[in-house]
Amino acid sequence: MIKIIIERRIMPGLEEEYEQAAREAMRVSLGARGFVGGESLVERGRNDHRLMITKWRDMRAWKEWYSSEARTMAMQRILPLLTEEESIRIYEASY
Asked: What does the pLDDT look like over 24-39, one tens digit per residue?
């Protein structure tokens, strides 16, 4: 299993619009093969800083989702609300 950490900075005043778009993107990802779960967090005291943590069965499942038309369409609503490009990091368990 892998975890994907996505950091985003939202334009001031567009936080509610972002929340709606992010909820829709998460809803769409629920149907993706290999999606295990996820959560959306806001940094305390910094309403413009968001963190998405998603769990995927494996790297192949994440790559399929990342390049899917469904994600591309969901991101069309999110990208205009960001002040900078999102940061994506991939983590796996260490043993």
From this structure: 988 889 889 999 999 9
